[in-house]
């Protein structure tokens, strides 16, 4: 089969099945969704705050339809008060129903360029439980004040009814905040919205500066962004973070920290998102030592970040090579049970925080929906919805499914790249070694940012080594991109 006729949509579904996912919803789901729609009716403000009068907005990808959170800010004595409204998915998706059981099995929405495999039925995730523009929706609001020094104070969590006043996109808001482009039509038409976004950005900048002072790691990240037209891959471009993605990232980190700290103080068991100290710290020390910096023998995120920031200034061209290698050596995050009576929770090494729980994306991540139920029970002073044993089992299953989901997404990016790079066999690319194991040695090239296997000349390479490799072969059917090294 030629690369031009390769069916990427069918390949994505097959990859989902191969990794143990169910790409389609089981029988009975449609009937439950119809029941939810029939019973949802008008959103009531009874017993919750009515915050529809605030100028909420969302910033997401251009094509996003499952809107999980909206934001609004105001200047107050002591700093900037930020409110993050998180879609109250738990109000409509009840525990142990057919929809919930499917979500618990799948654990997350898998995104590919050809098709998104939703954790929840799209009638919910892109409509009834999505914070769509100009729609009244129930939300869990995380509120905090960001001081001039970037500290988070005066935190609270409560239920509310909200209305998204402007659905915006990273691709437009980012360049505007950076002064590289004018505002899009929505932002340009409202001086109030412009001021609102700049206030959120001011809070985010302060939050980020404080996280860096505390030792959080900051990387330069580039992701593959396939250009697909009518189901056919035209090219692979590089997508970089911008000022708007940083804004949302900072507000979500602060929200997730607030959630975790609030649950810990209330002595409620929950799921934590942690990144343990890197097991391959010695290799990180070795890599950094090549640049003339000596790191401590024991993992130290502050020392590592000080080096990264200095290196980004000193050698911006090679910095992406280095930061990607260290990201790979850090290892992935994982979910763990945090018992209500624990005194010392596991922390998040990369974020330099002891309290972190995924909570801001309940439409597309099951742990966030679980956390939302735990928080709602706490707010209502009700018994926990899950036992510690149930939470531990959910954490283990989510970790396993997350690893499987990464395999699906990586395989599809490889297939998309195999199609796009079919005419580049024989060309040389620069990259960094991202994995070495019994199955082979893997390299991620930087332009376009895709990963492949070194099938010739791989001996002696380890994670973090930078190399020049030649593209030897592409096979979208088997998700192969093969490189050689002289």
Question: How would you describe the overall organization of this protein?
Answer:
The protein has 486 residues and is an alpha+beta fold. Helix content is 37%, strand content 25%. It is built from 13 helices and 17 strands. The chain has helices at residues 8-18, 29-40, 98-106, 122-128, 170-177, 185-188, 191-213, 243-265, 281-289, 301-314, 319-330, 366-379, 388-420, and strands at 49-50, 56-60, 69-76, 79-87, 110-111, 116-117, 136-146, 152-169, 222-229, 232-240, 270-274, 334-338, 428-437, 440-445, 451-456, 466-475, 480-484. The strands form five sheets. Strands 1, 2, 3, 4, 7 and 8 form a six-stranded mixed sheet that branches. Strands 13-14-15-17-16 form a five-stranded mixed barrel. Strands 5-6 form a two-stranded antiparallel ribbon. A hairpin with a 2-residue loop joins strand 3 (69-76) and strand 4. It starts with 7 loop residues before the first helix and ends with a strand.
Q: How would you summarize what this structure contains?
A:
37% of the residues lie in helices and 25% in strands. It has 486 residues and is α+β, with helices and mostly antiparallel strands. Strands 1, 2, 3, 4, 7 and 8 form a six-stranded mixed β-sheet that branches. Strands 13-14-15-17-16 form a five-stranded mixed barrel. Strands 5-6 form a two-stranded antiparallel ribbon.
